[in-house]
Design goal:
This protein has 253 residues and is an alpha/beta fold. The chain contains ten helices and eleven strands. Strand 8 and strand 9 form a beta hairpin.
Length: 253
Amino acid sequence: MTCAFKVVIPARYDSSRLPGKPLLMIAGKPMVLHVCDRAKEAGAEKIIVATDDFRILEVVNDYGFEAVMTRTTHKSGTERLAEVAEIFQWHEEDIIVNLQGDEPLIPAEYISLAAQSLAMQSTAGVATLAAEIIESEEIFNPNAVKVVLDKFNYALYFSRAAIPWDREAFKQKQVDLVKSDTYFRHIGMYAYRVSFLQRYVQWDASALERIEMLEQLRILWEGEKLLVAKVAKAPEAGVDTPEDLLRVERSLA
């Protein structure tokens, strides 16, 4: 059984390293349009690009997808999603997947999995993804966000640190012994119910969020459940640098 879901793609024009990033050409097409294609392949019933720049709006609309102008004051993509839900007056139980506009290589099946996982339970108002870590170096990489799960696959904590800490193995410097089904890397894609987004935008940033620089910790701080669906492997990284652009170009070509 599948559920209906929407995809919102936040796409800001400004980027310190790659100005105009959503419109950078990859394999003959602006990057944001590749992301729209992934959402379409996933079976989204509605795809909205939420932008703060008319150039992005025009390109998306000309290609046949839908874009909407949103406020320039948002501090996160999640806040931009909440505005889109308000603009279109979506129902509280509607499911929205937040798909980053700089990830043209995200597998379509991951998008639908996030939505379907959220739909199949009622405890959490938000779902995300994680992949098992199999390389020990990744456990200690602060750029790889780790997540610890309970037995029902709800998140207990997210951190840039090595969690859980294997006291005996790490004490003996046996860092090459990665225990199966223990260490998971978070994949930053989320599915939300509209009712959750309405609550989220009322919350202030938590101390934990500011320390780790991880927005999802605000959810746990507020006592909310966050469901984590497991996937076979982390997707290829998105576009943050000119080197990333070349890598993605090769993959899509």
